[in-house]
Write a structure and sequence with these properties.
The chain is mainly α. It contains nine helices and no strands. It has one domain. The longest helix is centred in the N-terminal third of the chain and has 35 residues. The chain starts with a helix and ends in a 10-residue tail after the last helix.
C-alpha cells in the first residue's frame, strides 16, 4: 500500500505540473496577442507553439505524459473518492466534474502526441467539432446544453473556490508561503472560471440556435474578448489570470495534499 500511495502522489504531482506548464504557455500567448495584435490561442495552439521551439518535440512527449498522468489522477479522485466528496448530490456533482476533467486531459494528451509526431494540423476547433457531431445525435441539442451546463458549473466552482479560498484546505504550505500563494491562486481560479463560463455560454447558445459554428473554446472566448472595446487590455488581464492559474497548478504539484483517503487507512 505504501508503494501505491507513493505512485499516486508522483502521478498527481507530475500531472499538476504538466497542467501548469500548459496554462502558463496559453497565458503568455494571450498576453503576446494583446500586445502584438495577434489572435489569442488555446491549449492546442500553445502546444503548436512549443513544437516550433528547439527541443519542442521532446518537450511535447514529456508534456503528453504529464497530461496523461493528470488524467489518471483525476480518474483516481473520481472512482476512489480520495478527497472524500461522498455520494450526496453536491459530492456527486464534483466527482462528475473530475471525471469530465479526466476525459478532457486524456484528449489533450492524445492531441499533444499527435502534434509531437507531426500528425495534427494547425487549424482546428475541437469544441465546435464536438458540438457539431453531438447535434446530429438523438436529443443532441439537449446533450449539448447539458455539456454546456457542466462546463459552466465547473466555472462557477472555480470562481467560488477562488473567492472563498477553498483551495487552502488542500495546501500544506507554511504561513509565509501562503501569503503569496493565496492571491495567485485566487486570481488564477477566477480567470479560469470566467473562461469556462464563457465557453459554456457559447456552447449553450449553439445548442439553442442549432448552429455549431457559434460554439467556442478557450481560443474563441479569448478572441471574442479581444474584439470588445478595450479588448487588448481585457485580453492582457485575462492572459495574466491564465498564467496565474498555471502558477497555481505548478504550486499544487509541490504543496497539495495528495493521498488515498479512506482507501489508504
Amino acid at each position: 500500500m505504501s508503494y501505491t500511495r507513493t505512485t499516486v502522489r508522483w502521478v498527481a504531482r507530475v500531472g499538476y505540473g504538466a497542467r501548469g506548464l500548459v496554462y502558463l504557455t496559453v497565458g503568455a500567448l494571450a498576453i503576446n496577442a494583446a500586445m502584438e495584435f495577434e489572435e489569442a490561442r488555446d491549449v492546442r495552439g500553445a502546444m503548436q507553439e512549443i513544437s516550433t521551439q528547439a527541443g519542442g518535440q521532446i518537450a511535447l512527449f514529456g508534456l503528453a505524459a504529464g497530461l496523461l498522468a493528470y488524467s489518471l489522477w483525476r480518474l483516481v479522485q473520481t472512482t476512489l473518492d480520495v478527497d472524500e466528496h461522498g455520494w450526496k448530490p453536491g459530492g456527486l456533482a464534483v466527482r462528475i466534474g473530475l471525471l469530465v476533467s479526466s476525459v478532457m486531459h486524456a484528449s489533450l494528451a492524445y492531441g499533444c502526441m499527435q502534434i509531437a509526431m507531426r500528425l495534427a494540423g494547425n487549424g482546428g476547433k475541437p469544441v465546435q467539432r464536438a458540438v457539431e457531431r453531438t447535434l446530429d445525435w438523438p436529443f443532441g441539442p439537449w446533450l449539448v446544453v447539458a455539456g454546456g451546463l457542466i462546463v459552466g458549473g465547473a466555472g462557477v466552482a472555480h470562481i467560488h473556490k477562488g473567492a472563498t479560498g477553498g483551495f487552502r484546505r488542500w495546501f500544506e504550505a507554511p504561513a509565509w508561503a501562503m501569503r503569496w500563494i493565496d492571491p495567485i491562486s485566487r486570481f488564477g481560479l477566477t480567470a479560469r472560471g470566467l473562461l469556462f463560463m464563457g465557453i459554456a455560454a457559447f456552447v449553450i447558445y449553439a445548442a439553442l440556435t442549432l448552429d455549431a459554428s457559434e460554439a467556442r473554446g478557450i481560443e474563441g472566448v479569448m478572441i471574442w474578448v479581444q474584439e470588445r472595446a478595450y479588448g487588448r487590455i481585457l485580453l492582457g488581464i485575462l492572459g495574466l489570470g491564465v498564467m496565474a492559474f498555471g502558477l497555481y497548478s505548478v504550486i499544487e504539484a509541490f504543496v497539495r495534499r495528495v493521498g488515498l483517503g479512506r482507501v489508504s487507512r
